[in-house]
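Sharing a chain and its predicted structure for anyone who wants a worked example. Both blocks are below, sequence first, tokens second.
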Amino acid sequence: QVQLVESGGGLVQAGGSLRLSCAASGRTFSLYGMGWFRQSPGKEREFVASISSSGGSTRYANSVKGRFTISRDDAKTTVYLQMNSLLPEDTAVYYCAAQRDYINTPLIRAADFGSWGQGTQVTVSS
């Protein structure tokens, strides 16, 4: 229902930082909880972070807690993922997604997200 386009990926050294952006189209962006997932070749897509529709609640995978921060700017219809202290294990294609239902809590299951972007590559060198 909502169209999403990720950007901001690239190559960075371990310990460095990147900020990913997800630009959304649609009048109802502010009604959707949003999330970031990632996937490496040959691996399943995994949850990274999510944020409630209000922006007041966030949730993170244990592997990124303390290093990544998800945020949203409803005026710009954009969600961000600030990634600090990057590790080679963070290398993946990162996808932005919108939750299916209008609930005010951030979710972590891919099945609970109905709209997906095309992804942006993040590569962390050791």
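Comments welcome. The mean pLDDT is 96.
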